[in-house]
Structure formats: C-alpha cells, structure tokens
Amino acid sequence: MMKTNKITQVITALTLSGIALPVLAQAQDGWYLGAGGGLAHTQIDRFEIITDLNNAGYQVTDFQEDERDFGYKLFLGYQFTKNFSFEGSYFDLGEFNYQATTVPVGTKIGELDFRGWSLDLIGMLPVTERSSLYARIGAHNSTASVDFAGTGAVNVLTPKYRKTSMDHKLGLGYQYQMTDHFAMRLEVERYSMDDAVGNRGDIDFLSLSFLYRFGAPTHAVAASPRPRPAAPQAIAPTEQYCSALDIHFDIANDDIERVNREHMQVIATFLNKYPETKAVIEGHTDNVGNDADNMRLSEQRAQAAVDYLVREHNIARSRLSAVGYGESRPIASNTTDAGMQANRRIHAVIGCATDIEGLQPLPARITLAMELEFDTNESAIHPKYRDQLETVARYLQTNPELTATLEGHTDNASPDRAQQVSRARAQSVADYLVREFAVDRSRLRVEGFGATRRETYNITALERQKNRRVNIIIGYPE
Description:
Layout: H1 4-24, E1 31-42, H2 46-55, E2 59-66, E3 68-79, E4 84-103, E5 106-126, E6 131-152, E7 160-177, E8 182-194, E9 200-213, E10 241-248, H3 258-273, E11 279-284, H4 291-313, E12 320-324, H5 337-343, E13 345-353, E14 368-373, H6 386-398, E15 404-409, H7 418-437, E16 444-448, H8 461-467, E17 469-474
Parallel strand pairs: 11-12, 15-16
Antiparallel strand pairs: 1-3, 1-9, 2-4, 3-4, 4-5, 5-6, 6-7, 7-8, 8-9, 10-13, 11-13, 14-17, 15-17
C-alpha cells in the first residue's frame, strides 16, 4: 500500500532538486542530476515468523503482510564516456510490515524501514540515437530499522532494532533522451539487505526517473584551417613510388564531400600519370551498429570513392576495386568520439610505379575550412565567432578568384525542421559576411544538409552541439 508520507517526501525531494539545478549548472560537461520513484517490493519470511511465535507458546490464527511500498531516490552522476558513468544516490525504499494474530489472544506487529546511500558503475549500450539500454552494479550503505509491537497476550521484549551495513546491488534499465538536457529512465534494481534481526533478503525497486544533464559547452572550438594536402615529391629513376589516401566520413554517410575532393584530385592525377597502376579502395567503419550493417556501409563507402574517380576524373573502372572491412580494422580507439570518427574512413592503396622521374601531379589548391556551432533550433551567430569570420572575409577579399560554400547541419532534435534549420544557419553566416565585411554575395553558396551528416552520435549534449554547425569551405570552385 502506498503511504502518503512517502509521497510527500518524494515531492519535497523533487522540489529540492529543482532548486539545486541553477547552483549546479556551472558543473563541467558530463554531470547530471535526477530523481525518481516507484514500487518497492520485498518478501517477508512468513514461515520463520510463525515458527518463532509457535516456539514462544503462541498459535498463529491469522497472518497479514504488506510487502509493497512507494520508494524514491535522488541521484547525481558523471558520464565520462558514451558507454560508462559513475552514479551516487540517496534512496528510501519505504516500509514493509506484517501482523500476526495469536492464541492466547494477541497480535504481534513488525515493520521494516530501509534507506541509505549507494555508489554504482553504469554501462550504457546505445540502441538508437536517443535510446539506450544500461546495466548497473554497485554497493550501498544502508540502515534497516525494524520496529516490533505486541498487544494482548503477546509481549515484545525488544521493540526496536537498527543495523547499518554495506551490501551490493544490481540493476537493468532503459533510458530515453527527450531533449538536449532531459532524459527519462525506466529501471528495475535489486538491493541485497540484512533486516537487522539476522534475516537476509532482497528488495526489488521498479522506478521511473527523470534526469537533467549539464554540459552545454562553455565554449565552442572552431576548426583550424585545414592544411594543404601534400603533393608527392619527385623521386629518382628506378625507385618505386606508392601512393595512399585516407578520407574520413560523417556517421552513416558515404558521400565524397567537398573537403575531400582535393585529396581525390591528387590520387586521380597519379592514376592518370601512370595508366598501368591499379587501386584498391578499402572502406571502414566504427563499431556502432551490428557487423552486417557496418560491413555493408564500409562497402558503400569504398564504392562511392570508386564511382567518384570514374565519374569525375575518367579513371577506368577496371583499374579500381572496392573492398569493405566493416569495423574489423580500426586505427583508433572506438571509446572516444575522435577515435570513432577516425575509423569511419576509406583508404586507397595504389599500385607502385617505377621510373617516375619528373612526376608532377597537379598541386593541391589552397583550402580553408572552419566550423561554427549553434544552439538548438537556432541560427543566430555567436559573437565569439566574429574574429574567425573576419579572417575568412579577409581571405576572400585577398583572393578574389575564390568562392566559399556554407554548409548547414543540425542534430536530430527536430527532424521535421532539420532541413529548414540547417539552411537557415548557412544563410545566416552568408548574410553576416555580406553585412559585416562587405563580401560579395555572388561568391557565397548556401546549402543545408539537415541531420544527414553527423559527426557524432547525438548521445550527449556536447555531441549534439557538435552536430549543430555550419562548415565554411573555401577553394573548391564547382
């Protein structure tokens, strides 16, 4: 039976959590605060209680127990990777009681109250961009209080027991990220406990929780200008020269983007210079998703590079082959966003050519790229980007033959508006360059890609912030 005093306690706890949010809002990225409540259930050892009463000379004629109550918890956690977090909590799992009626006429009443603190390690398994399954293992330091009372013929010599002890707990749950900051959890936990009079048992807790994530980035980092791709050096006669290419991809994407076309130009130059050489294009992925999907995506990435070389540079298809390796050949750790992005790549291995004195591939043109980040569903430009945008404007004014493409992107917070918002962001940057720095509008091209080119997996607020961006790419005339 749900007891009103417990409901009052959890409402008070939720109110205090709301008051605490502004105080903790300056915490570093990764912190979260939450509260939840639900049904706590234990199993009262009816047989042992009746046996004890029989041994004391009483015959039990009726036995009633209440093994359920409303429990609640408050928790504070830190998510230090996409898959792992630590969490500390205070919990009160309620009160459980029984009443035994006896002959000679009397009753014995027992009541157990259970509360304490816990520290857990949580492992997360993303299922979709917004939902995850998770498991927890931890320890709790708890106090079990048992009160006994007797009426009639039943005499209770020791009416109160209390014991504080350390024990373990386990849990399984489902989490859904509703917005950038708020998430919902549905979870079942099992607390092992000692009831203070020598009986071991478990309390199961089925709860619904809500958590608030801190971690809106305190500053956004614009990407530094991309270096010029290195042109192959002239090599003495009879030596061999082999060329290789690495191109990295956004999540679930197999397009050859503007920032990679210059690298493709260098490879195409090499293949055209030496028509006897062949190239094997290898596709790779990170480890998110199942093996079959990753293998298929890696093959698509490799094939996209082959098709691009054939279509844009007239390389004979017979000289190119595409191979997918899925997630089997990582070059970096998949435990970090940067590592996963490094593993989403194609690698081109090009056959060696001999007697290549005088090789002069087309020089790589000067390129520049930077990124601007935005708030959710917003296209307003942060004042902190003024200096970087002024640098872009001056570069365009110094090089009047160059144009700039502004690519807008979003996270997945508003899929129905993603295309509109992404283009509005790119248009906002173009308008800013024209208005503030007098850049000729005809030299600026605006495109919106919605949520189709993610750099990260939209799991945390910081990851979603990185996907809300505009890329400015200079030096790729169409």
